[in-house]
Write a structure and sequence with these properties.
- With 602 residues, this protein is of the alpha/beta class.
- It folds into three domains: 99 residues, 2-Layer Sandwich (Chitobiase, domain 2), CATH 3.30.379; 282 residues, Glycosidases (TIM Barrel), CATH 3.20.20; 165 residues, Four Helix Bundle (Hemerythrin (Met), subunit A).
- Strand 15, helix 7 and strand 16 form a beta-alpha-beta unit.
- The longest helix has 32 residues.
- It is globular and about 85 Å long.
Length: 602
């Protein structure tokens, strides 16, 4: 019997006698305590139910459970309804992993980390429909996350500040309340992330909100709010009241990451003082409202850049402030982890799903980053928050699921012994019902851009929307045929696969292949240096027209998949990138072969 599921079980003992889960039913006590319990088994085999699954309350820790599975009775031991639900998910996953051919077993399992959250960026790309939010919550529960944290720069509709998110289709308070109520049915907490200093760039372009932005000496609007402006504090107070009205008392994550402009304008000493003063104000206001401040730690422990202040200054914030240390790189060491712990701070670790500014999840880097960061932490933090970012705005959020599931495994079991190959195969078995052989067909889809050399992890993707009037700058362009051939094969391989579940995430891989293929064709067929003669340019004209036609097909696939699960918000921006490139390709095609325009544009 295969005992490998996600997240990895702490302890399982398999016995001899066989049984099939499809012959079991949930006793009334379970259904009364957890009305959604039957939905947990939607993907499992169905049969004549003869034997009971029972729940016995036992004084275990809050999320610990035990299962004693016998061929004619399955007993779950758990103290809480949430732990009961986790036990049911384990039964479901073991059944799926074995085509329901099980043997009697005993499981003892519990999480190593109390707080297991997903930070979901809904501000720089897609915003889910209500139904899609529901589906995300159900999937997170299956992989034993306990907290869903939507990241909202401009996607919460504030009644007190109507201009906030005017062009981003923000979610209303009433709708958020409905999503929170649904999450509660699935034993999932929801806590908000609302950035109350930096990443203000979208909002600072709105007329009524621009006065809240910090300005440079020349009047240029920055990407942070101005902590010296009293109007900023007035706005924050109104926002906090509305956020707490919806999400309730508890931890409120108030951002604070990457306030680069703050120290550019004021310098590190004054910028540091203003940052600490600003978040001290927020912490104190939250305390008045029976809430706790959570914030990013990078202003004191930066994974990149020169905008931070010394790590020991984090202690100047009010006692009890909770810090989230993020670092999404795969490194041999993570020295800031110990540096922050040495300050005796309340701390959470945050790796990344590795889908931002990419056509797909970099599954291997995500695995190494997550496992490495948790190993460096060595159980010292209060929990883990998997960060799922949408920088670039055009990568489908459905592509993040490999990284999210990796996070689910390691925040439950940071010492998990699963290798990268184990995780890769287990994800595809659990999520789609694929065999190991089928899963391996998808390896080049996720890692297409590492098949040849690259300057950095985003180099290949960035080439897609580069202006064709600029010569191709991709470093390893001479070997681009490797990616072209791999994506041609991947297209055929995808057509041969038929997932049993989670079709939306699988369909998103078709877009990965389409966009990677287009980009590889663009690199292969447009000039790598300045065109010097009309004769030299004529073949590039046809190539540009062919690429323009291909681009329209890619855009239509992207549009179709975008709206399958998401609202209109941000699609206009994404579509504009396609439209601009389409126009540029056609303009290039005209200019590169017409003498009159040749010298002007080429």
């Amino acid at each position: 019997m295969n005992t490998q599921i996600i997240p990895q079980l702490k302890q399982i003992e398999v016995k001899k006698d066989p049984f099939e889960l499809k012959h079991f039913y949930l006793e009334e006590a379970i259904l009364k305590a957890l009305p959604i319990a039957n939905e947990i088994f939607d993907s499992n085999a169905k049969g004549k139910a003869t034997y009971p699954i029972t729940w016995v309350k036992k004084e275990l820790t809050e999320e610990a459970y035990e299962i004693d599975a016998k061929k004619e009775k399955i007993t779950i031991y758990a103290k809480t309804i949430r732990a009961l639900m986790y036990a049911l998910f384990t039964l479901s996953e073991l059944s799926l992993a074995n085509d329901d051919k099980l043997k009697e077993f005993i499981v003892q399992d519990e999480p190593s980390l109390h707080f297991r959250g997903l930070s979901d960026d809904i501000s720089r790309g897609q915003i889910s429909t209500t139904d899609d939010f529901f589906n995300i919550i159900k999937k997170l529960a299956r992989y034993k996350y306990n907290t869903y944290m939507p990241y909202m720069e401009d996607t919460f509709r504030f009644d007190s500040i109507p201009a906030w998110g005017r062009y981003s289709e923000p979610v209303s308070k009433q709708e958020w309340k409905g999503i929170i109520a649904f999450a509660k049915e699935w034993q999932m907490d929801m806590r908000p992330i609302v950035n109350l200093l930096g990443h203000f760039d979208k909002l600072s372009n709105i007329e009524e909100l621009q006065p809240l932005a910090l300005k440079y000496e020349d009047g240029t609007v920055s990407h942070v709010m101005d902590p010296k402006n009293p109007k900023v504090r007035e706005a924050i107070l109104m926002m906090l009241d509305e956020i707490i009205e919806v999400f309730g008392e508890g931890v409120i994550h108030a951002g604070g990451d990457e306030p680069v402009d703050l120290t550019k304008v004021y310098g590190h000493d004054e910028g540091g003082r203003l940052f600490i003063e600003h978040y001290t104000f927020i912490a104190n206001e939250l305390k008045k409202r029976n809430c706790t401040l959570m914030m990013y730690a990078d202003f004191f422990a930066p994974p990149w850049g020169d905008y931070a202040v010394p790590v020991d200054r984090a202690k100047e914030l009010p006692e009890g402030t909770e810090f989230v240390f993020w670092d999404y790189a795969y490194r041999p060491e993570y020295p800031f982890v110990s540096a922050l712990h040495n300050q005796n701070l309340k701390m959470y670790i945050s790796p990344g799903s590795w889908t931002w500014k990419r056509f797909s999840c970099d599954v291997k880097t995500c695995y190494n980053n997550t496992k490495g960061l948790l190993a460096a932490d060595n159980g010292r933090s209060l929990g883990m928050i998997m960060s799922c970012w949408a920088d670039g705005g055009d990568t489908l959020r459905e592509l993040a699921w490999p990284g999210i599931v990796i996070g689910g495994n390691f925040c439950w079991s940071p010492a998990s012994t699963y290798t990268y190959e184990d995780i890769f195969n287990l994800y595809h078995a659990s999520f789609f019902g694929f065999t190991e052989e089928q899963a391996q067909l998808l390896e080049p889809v996720y890692h297409h851009d590492s098949l040849i050399a690259r300057e950095h992890e985003h180099e290949f993707k960035n080439e897609m929307f580069n202006n064709p009037f600029n010569p191709i700058a991709f470093k390893d362009k001479e070997h681009i045929a490797v990616i072209q051939n791999a994506m041609a094969k991947a297209k055929l391989d995808l057509a041969s696969l038929h997932p049993i579940r989670n079709m939306d995430a699988f369909n998103a891989l078709h877009l990965t292949v389409a966009r990677a293929s287009f980009t590889a064709n663009k690199i292969a067929n447009l000039p790598h240096k300045k065109v010097k003669t009309i004769e030299e340019g004529i073949p590039y004209s046809k190539a540009a027209l062919d690429l323009a036609a291909e681009l329209l097909q890619v855009k239509e696939l992207h549009r179709k998949l975008w709206f399958a699960n998401n609202r209109n918000s941000e699609w206009e921006l994404c579509a504009a990138r396609y439209d601009d490139l389409y126009d540029q390709l056609n303009m290039f095609a005209r200019n590169v072969r017409l003498r009159k325009m040749f010298n002007m544009h080429i």
